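User: Structure please.
Assistant: Input sequence and predicted structure:
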Amino acid sequence: MMTQATTLEEQARITADGMRELTDGFHLVIDALKLNGLTTIYGVPGIPITDLGRMAQAAGIRVLSFRHEQNAGYAAAIAGFLTKKPGVCLTVSAPGFLNGLTALAHATTNCFPMILISGSSEREVVDLQQGDYEELDQLAIAKPLCKAAFRVLHAADIGIGLARAIRAAVSGRPGGVYLDLPAKLFSQVMNAAAGKKSLVKVIDAAPAQIPSPAAIKRALNVLKSAKRPLIILGKGAAYAQADDAIRMLVEKSGIPFLPMSMAKGLLPDTHPQCAGAARSIVLKESDVVMLIGARLNWLLSHGKGKTWGEGRKKFIQIDIEPREMDSNVEIAAPVVGDIGSCVAALIEGMGGTWPAPPAAWTKAVTTKREENVAKMAPRLMNNNSPMDYHGALGVLRTIIKERPDAILVNEGANTLDLARGVIDMYKPRRRLDVGTWGVMGIGMGQAIAAAVETGKPVLAVEGDSAFGFCGMEVETICRYDLPVCVVVFNNGGIYRGTDVNPGGSDPATTVFVRGARYDKIIEAFGGVGVQAETPDELKRAVDVAMDSGKPTLINAVIDPAAGSESGRIGNLNPQSVLREK
């Protein structure tokens, strides 16, 4: 393969003996990516895309090679969320493609723009099922799990194929796109000038979608009628990067707001209107709820049931996808359009002044929030050994307060559930987690992409079970010398490390090796490993790691008895840890 590619590269870059300059599929893919500003690739090398990665690096594209395609895919997905450009994941055929498929579906479910590019076997062999190396009809498998899927068979169509993938990934509701590139495509040769003309620079890939004036007027009328209004901010609001407009809308309205986990920091969690620590009361007792980039799915108990109380509520929903409306409950005022345009139109429609919510409502929310914060404060200040979750998270809460620009990546069961309530965020798009699907194993991929795409220090807080899905990527973190501090909350098992097998000598299914030293893993690759057994030790270790910027893994020893079954996930996005008792 390398010999052929080298020969083609020589042909593509010289003009001699009257021959016209040639190019090939490898260079057309690279040129098409660069033309559209896609200059970072996350992937795993192998047949038939190894040379594509080599040539992309030579052409100035940053290619980050992972230890598993799924983690590379999670990196590409979150890169799309952070940049609003499609993150690119590159995999080999069949098994590599299948490994990346979970991340592709994850991107689609979470509305992250991502393109999974996979090499594949030739159509004529696949269609006759002749038993080619890694033979698989990848396009057919990908289609149900992504927003769009395309296959390119001719070098002259590479430019159009990538353009369609980009536009599909970012326009309307963003999502994952699959691009199938059979092995023979890379070695196809064509005239270089014609190849250059065949490339497409995508113009206005995600055009603004302006809401109708009638929809804006209807929404404002419903909002004005509210006695107990609430605004819910979802990760779609964070993705929109309409931060100033959203803040203006919230503050001008005076309405309490509840941020979903990846929307935390759009306005600081310490903002006087933030109702995160009074989640139960605002969901149950509100009468009008405005959803901005949030869906009434399982994370919000589908907009009904005990979580929402007994009174009938009116919903205002801002979403770019009209089919999202009425998906679970009736939406009294649907506002269809991109979030930036919709929020700007609402602000304009509010005029110079807007009636404040009834004082009784805002006071009730503030009182409950302050009560819950006061109740929780002592639990976050303990220095127990072994640590419990609250003591450990209390010091991480302080670290993020001291370093509000840092990116927090978070996953696990109890580690995720408790951290999203305890750790306050102060800036938008600084908290990254498992998202709508609740996928475990996103941690290292997201941490790597966050460091690469933002250049900011990253704190990844992992449950020991979640870390097991992606832990080998600490080698990737070390290889690229990224400023990532990983904290593994090690309680020796899934949910807790105290379960017993009543039927035999094997360990219980939820129990891991007792006394495991996860910090030793990163030391094998030249990183810094630290064992922390008290909150004070954890605070010192994380501070040193964040100050140094060195790849670090801290094994935070948590009481094996700490934790609860399923991380309380059975409660469908449980109340904040600061919820009413």
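Residues 1-6, 14-19, 569-581 have pLDDT under 50 and may be disordered.
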